[in-house]
Amino acid sequence: MPVYADAHCHLHHPSMRSQLETLLADKKKVHLVCAGISSRDWPQLLKLQRDMQSKHPHSCIECCFGIHPWEAANISASPDALAEAEARLESVLRDQAPSAAAVGEIGLDRAWLARQTPPCREQLWDTQKQLLAMQLSAAQRWQLPAVLHCVKAHGTMQEMLRKVPTLPPSFLHGFYGPPEALRIYADLKLYVSFSTAQLLKDWHSLDWQERGKPRWQTSADALPLNRILLESDSGPQADGSPSPPRRADQAAMPLAELYRCSADDILEQAGLNLASWLHRR
Ligand SMILES: [Zn+2]
Questions:
Q1: Architecture label for domain 3-278
Q2: What's residue 281's pLDDT?
Q3: Model pTM greater than 0.90?
């Protein structure tokens, strides 16, 4: 049976139910890696995993448990919130670590910080770093990889990754940054997916050949083909509404152009990469 694989999405969220049903109605085995973004939605992940086991036994969902950097707003509001978050993460990992895919989605986001009111920014940045350090060390302790979100903070992210040298090979999702940062992630043996939304937007633009392609080509040249993953990042948007319908395999065509191979080659290699990332233990 053909497989539809998505290395990073949030299709477990109730607002995404109709998009998930559309995927499951397709004549393919569906393999999803769903990332939790706070302890509030971890139960949804586990519920969907149970539902899939009983109603769609040919398909499966891999669960990642983490606290997203945008949660820094809730964590920094109370002095005990970080310790409470750590206790909740520890508890879910104690129960789920043998079958969990990763700790994630966790990370740093300076673009989000820039949208916050100036007096809070430094405190929120410190909270993001504390939250990430706590979760990276939990991932290392439980020998789970991390699913990383990083926007405009690659230097700090790389510094923090070097402090967890025995973390299993992790996955940076939705990359849209400088190629030199990508070279360092490749040296750190990370798997990386490019931002599907941005890649498709550029690929469909009129100046793809002149501007879009040269920029993405430099990124593709920095990342070996055996490190790429494909993702949709489908999930609720900041206002709670569902993201526009998007498929992970839509990135195969532009990537085929960048890696000078066929879209089928990209799909096959990304499938192998996902399997080797998930079965690293
Ligand atoms: Zn995500």
A1: Alpha-Beta Barrel (3.20)
A2: 53
A3: yes
